[in-house]
Amino acid sequence: MNTAVDRSLLKSAFPFPGCNAAGALLPEVPADLERCTTVARYRQHQTIYFEGDSADAICQVVEGCVMLYKLLPDGRRQVVELLGQGDVFGFARGEERDCSAETLTDVRVRFIDRRSAERSCSFQRILARRMLIQFEAMHEHAVLLGRKSAMERVASFLLRLAPDTDQPVISLPMTRQEIADYLGLTIETVSRSFSELKRRGLIVLEKQDRVRITRFNAIEDLATAC
Amino acid sequence: MNTAVDRSLLKSAFPFPGCNAAGALLPEVPADLERCTTVARYRQHQTIYFEGDSADAICQVVEGCVMLYKLLPDGRRQVVELLGQGDVFGFARGEERDCSAETLTDVRVRFIDRRSAERSCSFQRILARRMLIQFEAMHEHAVLLGRKSAMERVASFLLRLAPDTDQPVISLPMTRQEIADYLGLTIETVSRSFSELKRRGLIVLEKQDRVRITRFNAIEDLATAC
DNA sequence: CGTCGATTTGACCTATCTCAATGAGAGTGG
DNA sequence: CCACTCTCATTGAGATAGGTCAAATCGACG
């Protein structure tokens, strides 16, 4: 099933559902862990686990998009990671999950028993390599949250989802509320930013959840170094 | 030199210089990597590397505090991680460092050759475990940047640095500018928040870089779930 | 066609930023 | 020991990006 190991080098921490679809590549799990592994299916907008749940299994996205978020006591929510094919999540320092995990699309998730995973050398290697990718994505996200304007955040977000210049149509797997919670904005500000981009002719909203980037360079300029 | 392995479980991603000083514990490197390892010293406010430098060695803080930051083209800066004893940094997805590393205090850094590290199973294990800790810190940081008010950010920051209720005096290893760049605020807002806390009697500024928390609970309330 | 949830738009408000001035502390040299 | 200077921090006054609240519009679905 898992032929090549370098699959772990695929770009990722990249939440767009179709982004890797072309190759339909399966993420890698070393043979010695195959038997400690389950794959489960989830529908869109289902919760995989909640913050505080006991963390006995490590998870990997086989297919689809997942978001990790944290809640403040008064209900404010921050999406802390967007995950796509191959990304790992659900490992924890202590015994509890430090944030909640919810699906953005229909998803297949592989669960790997935590103790077995800790024993498997090859899995540790894959895990560490994966985490690098997610580290960089989180650094970028911190810059976005700490230092970018609303417009810059939305533009950066679009670029993050735009597969390529020659693939300028994005199917947003997220509601405005989820986008807002990822970008540290309100739903109204996200909406106004989209409208402004539309007014300036940089994007076309083909459907509510379908964006065509018409002037890629202009979006790049707005994003201030994605 | 490295007797116990569980040292890697010590709390960390915790930037306060004196936080682990009591035990004077050295972070762990497996024996098989000892010879691929160098330890270097840096003075306060020295750059270890810049974003874009080639990433040929992984780094670990042996002693002191380090910050990782990214710059936007127009000079805006975001500090993306604060690191203390035992924390690892400088690994990269590609060939280049994704952010810059600068010392906050006098620092000792251990460099581990990247290729050797990738081959060492025990190091991968330590690395993965360390990264978990830093992951959680970064999630917390994203919540702070995306969803907390200025006051909440400053209160959370103080709690992060306060070793304990019975150790209420904090020596800030950072300038106001560095704090502002970590919290996603301006220097003025940080300063005003400190003044407000002082006015309300929750802290005393014994020196510019020395804060005594006088009403711990009140700070905790302000921080909104640290 | 009617209903319901999600999105967009408008009007207003406020937390934080910006710009500018003042103050405090550390180091230097007379 | 006392100016002098330099950097960093504080404070004030005014501007503004983005938040809040409320209303209008859209789109999917029965």
TrEMBL record, chains A, B:
The keyword Nucleotide-binding does not apply. The keyword Transcription applies. Pfam families: cNMP_binding, HTH_Crp_2. CDD domains: CAP_ED, HTH_CRP. Residues 42-90 form the Cyclic nucleotide-binding domain. One of its GO terms (cellular component) is cytosol. Residues 148-217 form the HTH crp-type domain. Gene3D superfamilies: Jelly Rolls (2.60.120.10), Winged helix-like DNA-binding domain superfamily/Winged helix DNA-binding domain (1.10.10.10). SUPFAM superfamilies: cAMP-binding domain-like, Winged helix' DNA-binding domain. It comes from the Bacteria. InterPro entries: cNMP-bd_dom (IPR000595), cNMP-bd_dom_sf (IPR018490), Env_Response_Regulators (IPR050397), HTH_CRP (IPR012318), RmlC-like_jellyroll (IPR014710), Tscrpt_reg_HTH_Crp-type_CS (IPR018335), WH-like_DNA-bd_sf (IPR036388), WH_DNA-bd_sf (IPR036390). One of its GO terms (molecular function) is DNA binding. Keywords: DNA-binding, Transcription, Transcription regulation. PANTHER family: CRP FAMILY TRANSCRIPTIONAL REGULATORY PROTEIN, FUMARATE AND NITRATE REDUCTION REGULATORY PROTEIN. This is Helix-turn-helix domain-containing protein. It comes from Microbaculum marinum.
